[in-house]
Amino acid sequence: MSNLRTVEIKAFVPARDFELSKRFYQDLGFVMASDSDGIAYFHHGETSFLLQDFYNEALASNFMVHLLVEDVDAWSAQVAASGIATKYGVKVTPVEQQPWRMRDFVVMDPSGVLWRIAQNTD
Length: 122
What we know:
Blueprint: E1 12-14, H1 18-28, E2 31-36, E3 39-44, E4 47-52, H2 57-62, E5 64-68, H3 72-82, H4 84-88, E6 96-98, E7 102-108, E8 114-120
Parallel strand pairs: 1-4, 5-8
Antiparallel strand pairs: 2-3, 3-4, 6-7, 7-8
C-alpha cells in the first residue's frame, strides 16, 4: 500500500476576472509563484491552490475552500489590515466559534468563491 501515498491536492478556483482575482489573492497574503496559460499557482507556506481563468456562475457561487490555520485571530487581523473587504467589495465575517469545534471566519472572493478560514479548538 505504500505506493498509494499521496503528496498534495489542489483546487482549481474559478475567476470571473482573472487579473482582479490574482491581485485579490496576493492582497489576501498568498504568493503567486507562476502564471501561465490561464492558470496561476498560489501558495502560502505549504498550502496552495490554482486560480483558473474560467468562470461559471453556478460553479463559483457553490465553490468553497476550507483553509485550516494555526491562528485564526492572526489571519482575521491580517485580512482586516489588508482592506480587501473595501478594496474588492467582498464579504468578510467576524471570527465565530462553530459547533464542529472550530473557530472560523468567511471571506468571499470577487468571483463569489467562499473561503472558510478556520482553527481547531478543543
